[in-house]
Specification:
Chains A, B: InterPro entries: HTH_LacI, LacI/GalR-like_sensor, Lambda_DNA-bd_dom_sf, Peripla_BP_I. Chains A, B: One of its GO terms (molecular function) is transcription cis-regulatory region binding. Chains A, B: This is Transcriptional regulator, LacI family. The structure is a homodimer of 344-residue chains. Chain A is of the alpha/beta class and 344 residues long. Helix content of chain A is 42%, strand content 12%. Chain A has twelve helices and ten strands. The longest helix of chain A is centred in the C-terminal third of the chain and has 17 residues. Strand 2 of chain A pairs antiparallel with strand 2 of chain B. Chain B binds a DNA duplex (30 and 30 nucleotides) through helix 2 and helix 4.
DNA sequence: AACCGCGCTGTGAACGCTAACAATCGTCCC
DNA sequence: GGGACGATTGTTAGCGTTCACAGCGCGGTT
């Protein structure tokens, strides 16, 4: 008739009593401290199971110094890149026994990053991953009140901060070279928003690859990652006979571009070849299937976390990790430069 | 020569000393307790600013009952729906002064949900939002060790759990009716994965809408949300002259379907009309632009959070919120049933 | 003049855990 | 055989905050 399960969840002292040991011994068992007799350890673990005990992370964090929670600052997690990176980081964190607290920025600016970081600091996160490839993240980070270990994702020039990045330059080169090798005289570019580092890197590499090949550099077209901006770029480009190859800074823009071309009767790849960036799951099923540059976001997440954990161990030295190398995925949207050339 | 800023961040007692009051008074000021003299309040706030003091959320959570952190359990945050909902919830939570801790499920099963919930419980979250429209989430939730207030998102039959959902039935009806009104004899359906509640609801509503209209119900085609599955469905459907209208359970599937149709020379909307579901940002720029059912995920997130906060206030009664109503967005992928009919 | 109540403030004890140190026991070594 | 030592366990003190319960001073009552 007694009530065996109190509504209040068991705490460490309950386990200790049930196992006939002190709470400290329970703590030792839970934290894998070596000097506990096997027989005692078993007794404790049995009690833990019996009471369905789960240690309280809050108390843990308060008592020890480190919490088992990491913070992630991200921006626009509906975009494929950030979403995929977030997922990668979250998975890796969970595998390493960390919880993940997120803050999504409304705007990519200094104050936003700063606020986000102090919100996370308040929660005593052990470290922070910043998936906000804002051109000015570094400054925001430096102005951080307290020194939380932080890793920045996908920031090209991170200003000395530990960073994991996909080699955007290599990716853009891959795209441009691919198009040049197909016989195109030059390559047009629809770039991403200027406050994103990736966008700048891709544009820069596009430009320098063309220059290195001794080709003329057409005027760059603005874009903001959205399919709409790609569509608008497509409308502008569709009338121009000089345009035979376009490198879009991401796949959504390429989708919009393809749409505009389709509407205007520009045939892809017959008249114009198109390359995107990211290899979103939909790329393979666009009309036509999109040649693009694949980034391994999962790998980014994993390395990112590995780096952060290194940083937690030895906060003095900044670990250096190699960039993640993107690969070209060739599909139907790119083709040999057609005989139209013969007219010239 | 002295060092004015100790590396250790200021704590409440530091503020108290600086302001010449007790730590409890500082606490009162911070929590907006009324019985503090204005002059004292000012003095404390000045000290807070001066020391750049931020209360420690861990200690707060430990001492008081409630933490200011909410948990979110989600699944496959790369998909548009979950990603958008997550973003909506996160925004609303932040606006309400809550932090957000996320757990992304690897698999949609009972244990996954259960583990995720206890991981969050460990972090003493105040409440949980579950964006895992798994058909069996309800059971997993009930087997939860302790009673954390929880709100389920997008679950049709949530088994008595507080839930916010988009009215999938209304949405699917909108899609099917739209196609019937355009003169199509019947509507084919490419459904989503069977363990998703949304997929089941959409399929059910598709079926019953057809039946209510006295139309024949074609065999359903399987899909898994991916563009690839839509593509495969498209290949199967492309040869069939009876197919004049297809309702896809989401926009990605519709994209794949459009691709397959394009490949096989099936013209959209001339030969076949296609409707999707979600209105992802890319839908407008598909070839042709996709008619689809728009869901307001931001609204879902907001209501969800409002509901959870209600639940935190009075855990006894389950608040009831109306469903979010989706709307039809008509684009070029649907058109009047063409003269092909005249042949029959 | 003693008393009550109210506005404001301070004191002590949790909250559940880890860290540092002390205690106990048996063993090993000379 | 005594003391040092290692293995194992217990004890005590925080971590930084909130909660419950006093205190104190002052004006108004009786």
């Amino acid at each position: 008739m007694d009530q065996p399960s109190p509504p209040r969840p068991a705490v460490m002292i309950d386990v200790a009593r049930l196992a006939g040991v002190s709470h400290q011994t329970v703590s030792r068992v839970l934290n894998g401290h070596p000097s506990v007799r096997d027989e005692t350890r078993e007794r404790v673990l049995t009690a833990v199971r019996q009471l369905n005990y789960r240690p309280n992370a809050l108390a843990r964090g308060l008592a020890g110094r480190r919490s088992r929670v990491l913070g992630v600052v991200s921006f626009d997690t509906i975009l494929y890149g950030p979403a995929a990176t977030l997922l990668g980081v979250e998975r890796a964190a969970r595998a390493a026994g960390y919880g993940v607290s997120i803050v999504t920025l409304e705007q990519l600016d200094h104050d936003g990053v700063s606020d986000a970081l102090s919100a996370l600091a308040e929660q005593s996160v052990a470290g922070v991953v910043i998936i906000a490839p804002f051109t000015n993240t570094a400054a925001a980070l430096r102005s951080l009140p307290m020194g939380i270990p932080a890793v920045v994702v996908e920031a090209g020039a991170s200003g000395g901060l530990p960073a994991i990045s996909v080699d955007q330059v290599a990716g853009a080169e891959l795209a441009v070279r691919h198009l040049l090798e197909l016989g195109h005289e030059t390559v047009w570019h629809v770039r991403g928003p200027q406050n994103w580092l990736e966008a700048r890197d891709r544009e820069g590499a596009w430009r320098s690859t063309l220059e290195a090949a001794g080709r003329s550099v057409p005027p760059v077209i603005d874009g903001d990652w959205s399919a709409r901006s790609g569509y608008q770029a497509g409308l502008r480009l569709a009338g121009d006979p000089r345009v035979t190859a376009v490198f879009c800074a991401n796949d959504q823009q390429a989708l919009g571009l393809l749409r505009a071309f389709h509407e205007r009767g520009v045939r892809v790849p017959d008249s114009v070849s198109v390359v995107g960036f990211d290899d979103i799951p939909e790329a393979e099923f666009m009309s036509p299937p999109l040649t693009t540059i694949r980034q391994d976001f999962d790998e980014v997440g994993r390395r990112c976390l590995a780096m952060l954990l290194d940083l937690l161990d030895s906060p003095v030295e900044t670990p250096v990790y190699p960039r993640v190398t993107p690969v070209l995925v060739s599909r139907a949207s790119t083709g040999i430069r057609q005989s139209a050339n013969a007219n010239s």
